[in-house]
Amino acid sequence: MNYREQLKDRQRIVIKIGTSSLTHPTTGNLNLIKLEKLIRELVDLRNQGKDIILVSSGAIAVGKKAAGLKERPDRIAQKQACAAIGQCRLMMTYQKLFGEYNQIAAQILMTKNTMLEEATRVNAHNTFQELLSMGVIPIVNENDTVSTYEMQFGDNDTLSAIVAALVEADLLILLSDIDGLFTDDPHKTSKATFIDLVDHMDERLMQMGKASTGTNVGTGGMATKLTAARIATESGADMVIANGKDVHVIHRIMEGKQFGTLFVAHRKEEFTIADYVEAGY
To answer: Which residues fall in the annotated binding site for ATP?
Structure first.
């Protein structure tokens, strides 16, 4: 079975992009050329009749830059203040760029509480459904401004998988600073072997990501991506980890080309979002 070819038929797609893929490494400023290309990719998929949801990091990094801080904030209040500043600026940029293609975008901010309570979970699902039926592209982020440590998802890899499960997406694409899944950390050893396809998640794979770390601007390493893969595939969505250095990789993945690592969906009949959130994934 050619799993890659089947990606062409996916209709509801969640795409997550990390902070390191949105900003210039030397200055921390937004990479506007890359952002413009990303929006063009997303709108073109929308023009094909597909439902698109973007999970975007970057609020704290943008707020930190605007506030003139040199180091990433470590105090909760400082992080939340930067998120409050950055979320406005980030959404303003997204709205302007989407507006160039006459595409409406909407902002949705979430915490774990949204998923734990049935009423709020159903309400969030209905809101997503309504936005998508209107042809809107929702832009999702964790509500860093008000969420406490206990109510944080902690990283947008996990958040994007939860969102994919919530909206019953059939594909999740994680854009990262790595080409996909390797047998070891390719940043540290040349012996790392690339894994093109994961047909089934198991404990051995989960352990492979435990020692990995992300970049100094993000919060997720390979462990969080494998957790996201488990949630997404068990909810019924395929997932691809790919390098966000060139965002044109999005349409290449959708064309069935060999980019990134593909995790094949294996829906669990007993899957429920609340169970995963309560168990800490």
So the answer is: 16, 176-177, 219-225
Q: Which of 82, 96, 85 is nearest to 36 (CA)?
A: 96
Whether the full predicted model's pTM is greater than 0.85, yes or no, is yes
Judging by DSSP bridges, how do beta strands 261-263 and 238-243 pair with one another?
antiparallel
Binding residues for substrate: 57, 144, 156
46-74 per-position pLDDT tens digit: 999 999 999 998 888 899 988 888 887 88
The number of angstroms, rounded, from the C-alpha of 170 to the middle of its chain's C-alpha atoms is 14
Question: Would you state the structure tokens that stand for residue 244, as one six-digit string?
Answer: 């966000």
Pair of tokens at residue 83: 């998120």
- Select the CATH number that applies to the domain covering 3-278 from these four: 3.40.1160.10, 3.40.50.12710, 3.40.50.980, 3.30.565.10: 3.40.1160.10
In degrees rounded to 5, what are phi and psi of residue 271? Answer: -60, 130
Secondary structure of 18-86 as H, E, C letters: CHHHHECCCCCCECHHHHHHHHHHHHHHHHCCCEEEEEECCHHHHHHHHCCCCCCCCCHHHHHHHHHHH
Within 8 A by CB and 6+ apart from 34, the residues are: 21, 22, 247
Among 2, 7, 9, which Cα is nearest to 252's?
7
Binding residues: 16, 57, 144, 156, 176-177, 219-225
Question: Tens digit of pLDDT for each residue in 167-187?
Answer: 999 999 999 888 998 887 777
Q: Where are the domains of the chain?
A: 3-278
